[in-house]
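User: Sequence in, structure out. Go.
Assistant: Echoing your sequence, followed by the structure tokens.
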Amino acid sequence: MSEFSIRRLFVYPIKSCRGVEVSSLQISREGPRFDRRWMVVDESGEFVTQRTEARLALVKTELEKGIIHVQIPGSVPLSLPEKLGMGDAKEVKVWGDSVDAFVSRDASVALSDFLQKSVYLVSKSSERAVDQRYGTTDDRVSFADAFPILVTSQASLADLNDRLDAPITMERFRPNVVIDGGEAFEEEGWSRVTLGGVPYAAPKRCDRCVVTTIDPLTAEKGKEPLRTLAKYRRQEDGRVYFGMNLLPRGGEHELYVGDRLCVVGTNA
């Protein structure tokens, strides 16, 4: 049975905006507390990410005693609760899922000014189920793309950086949990693990998109690391994978930097 240790932990309060490195995560069936609890949408309610608006990488977030502090370039600092309990209602969509949400007026105005287009910052007010091909009827996800938790491996990043002209940081891949130990890309074979002694399912590898090619500090676009990953990691389905998605199976709990990840089941 392989063992790994948690090296770094992250949350991303606003989907596709800059994340926050933390020393611990409070985990529920929706994933880490504060993670992707807010999202930017266009006038039609369709989600907006760095795929089309790379400058979202420049929107900074911080956490303090249950409050999300947001710094939008050119705007005064704003503060948001973990989620809104009331306000202007809006139906929004993320990867085809329709979700009820509330709108933050002040943040929406500031983001619209920054992006030079009409957008809304919304907080989810109804539940969103995980794709039933990979989860159970009880599995839930926030505004994350598809799954509540993403784990990446420091060994996999080191393998990739050995092949790049200029190394990149793990922030490109926007994980929640970064682990030490094992071989590069070993995580792709997991089916079940424990984190801090709590069970998790590992239903699907994470296929990567152009967001990984955007510098998280400058919002500048490039071709790496996707170009290099595609040369030696493209799979039969044509996709490039980096990281493993997880579904919590142990009720509410807390994870800490230094906790152990143990592999208890593989797809081999």
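User: And one key feature?
Assistant: The chain has a mean pLDDT of 96.
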